[in-house]
Write a structure and sequence with these properties.
By secondary structure, the protein is an alpha/beta fold. The protein has 18 helices and 20 strands. Helix 11 crosses helix 13.
Length: about 475
């Protein structure tokens, strides 16, 4: 797309305006495929006659090699700049993106012998070989159990029957297949887990038939990278605390999106992903230097990305980016997300703040959570870049007072309280560089983070006996949940 003007000698009055437009809209060449060109009709009279140029300067808009219209508006810089902005947005939105959106990761072809999914409506007992084969063929819901866990068995059989012809439902006896359960990171019995497209999601809520059915159907459908335009954006902001967007410009390559989908496939089921070329979203995201393709993450309903990754990138870089950014700015830690936060493969450091949740005046808890969010945002803007991500979380300090006291020495009578936890190492920090007690205040938290980064602070050891899960538990609950009041 281009705006063309023939600059004859008598066009000198307009030349400074056109030159300024060319300089200020240079970035649109790569962002929106918009070019400003000019033709000297004294030197190329035949070309100007072909395009029916009858007066000078004459402005015409072209797209895809064809004339769209002749510009007839005011010749001021402001008016033409507005025209260029609106027309270039219209052009980029008119491009057919169906082909790019359809270039997804092909689903594995299922052979004729494996076409039937749970045809008998029963929960099949499987070993490591069979489980791996089923995982490669599509979604499979697994119960890892010990023979002593009998309470769920009747409901599990009913669930398998309900999922007949819809979903594979299998069971793994961890007494018979100890190495498999260890490899899969099973820490308690029974553990219920949905595998789909190379990733898995644990079911940690109610064990009723309807709870399991609702969970299974939610994660049964393969994840997708959805198209996003400006009209949908406000709705998406309200729907998701965190979502990822592949921002594309006119200079993006279709292979960028395709390679991203391949690398991100394990996460498409459990996180929200979109792709867009919409100028409104790209401009609002203040990605002024965007050329090519960028993976951006948006959090807490904001219009500006929290973090960005230029594409193409390696699978390892994409995976690390998603793992590090998949949570909102501030996480409420509870029994549902305990494993995802404190046992994450990202090995994140966690600024953990214990707050009093009940018996508060209206708005007091929300005010403290918002203060933690401000501290987190300030850290993300200018804090140290650790090798592992840094997450900010809060926890109900009264409900989980036993767990907090035994692991981190936090007393429920002294809330709010804060520690910097390193769960992967079973260590934590509760003092600042100044050797004062770490408190719920920005400067204090930043000092401890700096001290940990510089290795100036000696960590304390958390109680490793309070791991998530127990071999003797009949439900997948840890002492974290068992010690909740």
């Amino acid at each position: 797309m281009c705006l063309d003007v023939p600059p004859g000698g008598h066009c000198r009055a307009f030349a400074p305006t056109y030159e300024k437009l060319g300089q200020n809209f240079k970035s649109l060449e790569k962002k929106r495929g918009f070019h400003l060109g000019q033709v000297n009709c004294q030197a190329q009279g035949d070309l100007c006659n072909k395009h029916n140029i009858k007066f000078y300067p004459q402005l015409k808009l072209y797209g895809d090699g064809k004339e769209i219209e002749e510009y007839s508006g005011d010749r001021s810089y402001e008016t033409i700049a507005q025209y260029i902005d609106s027309q270039s947005k219209r052009y980029i939105r008119s491009l057919d993106t169906n082909a790019a959106r359809s270039d997804g990761v092909d689903q594995a072809a299922v052979s004729a012998s494996d076409a039937a999914v749970n045809a008998e409506g029963t929960a099949e007992e499987v070993d490591e070989t069979t489980l791996e084969r089923y995982k490669s063929l599509g979604p499979v819901f697994v119960k890892f159990y010990a023979p002593c866990c009998k309470k769920l068995a009747p409901t599990w059989s009913q669930f398998a029957k309900r999922m007949k012809d819809k979903l594979r439902v299998v069971s793994v006896n961890c007494d018979d297949h100890k190495s498999l359960c260890t490899t899969e990171g099973v820490r308690g019995y029974p553990t219920l887990r949905m595998y789909n497209q190379g990733t898995h999601k644990e079911h940690t809520k109610g064990r009723s038939l309807e709870h399991m059915r609702a969970f299974a159907e939610k994660y049964l459908t393969p994840g997708e990278v959805h198209h996003l335009d400006g009209q949908q954006w406000d709705l998406v902001k309200r729907q998701h605390d965190v979502y990822f967007v592949v921002l594309q410009t006119f200079s993006s390559k279709s292979s960028d999106l395709l390679s991203f989908k391949t690398a991100a496939a394990p996460y498409l089921v459990t996180s929200a992903f979109y792709e867009t070329h919409d100028p409104e979203i790209i401009d609002a995201a203040t990605v002024d230097d965007l050329h090519g393709t960028v993976l951006a993450v948006f959090k807490d309903g904001t219009s500006q990305p929290t973090a960005r990754l230029s594409l193409p990138a390696s699978s390892e870089e994409i995976n690390s980016f998603i793992l590090a950014q998949r949570f909102p700015t501030v996480i409420e830690l509870d029994s549902v997300n305990f494993d995802e936060v404190l046992q994450s493969p990202a090995r994140a450091l966690v600024v953990l703040v214990a707050l009093k949740k009940s018996g508060r005046s209206t708005g007091e808890l929300e005010k403290e959570v918002e203060e933690l969010r401000k501290i987190a945002k300030a850290w993300y803007r200018g804090g140290r870049k650790f090798e592992q991500p840094v997450w900010f979380a809060w926890i109900d300090g009264e409900r989980y007072k036993k767990w907090l006291k035994q692991n981190y020495g936090i007393k429920h009578t002294q809330l709010p309280a804060v520690v910097l936890a390193d769960p992967a190492s079973h260590q934590y920090y509760d003092t600042t560089l100044e050797r004062s007690k770490l408190i719920f205040e920005g400067a204090s938290i930043f000092s401890t983070l700096e001290g940990a980064y510089q290795h100036f602070l000696k960590p304390k050891t958390s109680d490793s006996t309070l791991e998530w899960g127990s071999r003797v538990s009949s439900e997948k609950q840890s002492q974290f949940e068992e010690q909740a009041d």
